[in-house]
Amino acid sequence: MRRPGRGLGIAALAVLMAGLLMAAGGALVPRLLYRAASYSGSAMAPTYAKGDLVLFRKDPAEVRRGDVVLVTVGAMDGGEDPGGPVVERVVAVGGDTIAYEPGAPRLMLNGRPLDEPYVKDGEPTAGSPGPFSVTVPQAVSYTHL
């Protein structure tokens, strides 16, 4: 003989278990797929301010021009090591040629001025080491550091 209310207890237990699984999945999936980084620079202003928390996919399917990425770089040109990953915007991808001449108002991408509407105060070349021209190898992207 069935006890009254027993089916309700089993249903409540099933709902509780489903809720716990959903909560665990909701906490675990973002940690597996994404990485959070605190932005500490000023080069990405006004898009990101110092202290902003930025989420990045750990394994992006494809990196495109304009994407914001988290990269690890060492000391460059005798400068200081940034001490960990840095946030940068991709300006060129495999096969692109990126160039800069001192005094030029913009970087050149494949022989044309690079349109960067997100650049603050029109300073797309701030921090450039000097004149350069580089063709990005296939399967590689170039960030303007």
TrEMBL record:
Q: What is its EC class?
A: hydrolase
**Stretches assigned to the Peptidase S26 domain:** 22-123
| Record GO biological process | signal peptide processing
Catalytic function, reaction form: Cleavage of hydrophobic, N-terminal signal or leader sequences from secreted and periplasmic proteins
Record-linked InterPro entries: LexA/Signal_pep-like_sf, Pept_S26A_signal_pept_1, Peptidase_S26
Looking up SUPFAM superfamilies in the UniProt record yields: LexA/Signal peptidase (SSF51306)
Q: Where in the cell is it found?
A: Cell membrane; Membrane
Q: Which EC numbers characterise this protein's activity in its record? A: 3.4.21.89
Print the keywords alphabetically: Hydrolase, Protease
A GO cellular-component term linked to this record = plasma membrane
Could you say which protein family the record assigns here?
A: Belongs to the peptidase S26 family.
Question: What's the protein called, per UniProt?
Answer: Signal peptidase I
| Biological source species | Streptomyces katrae
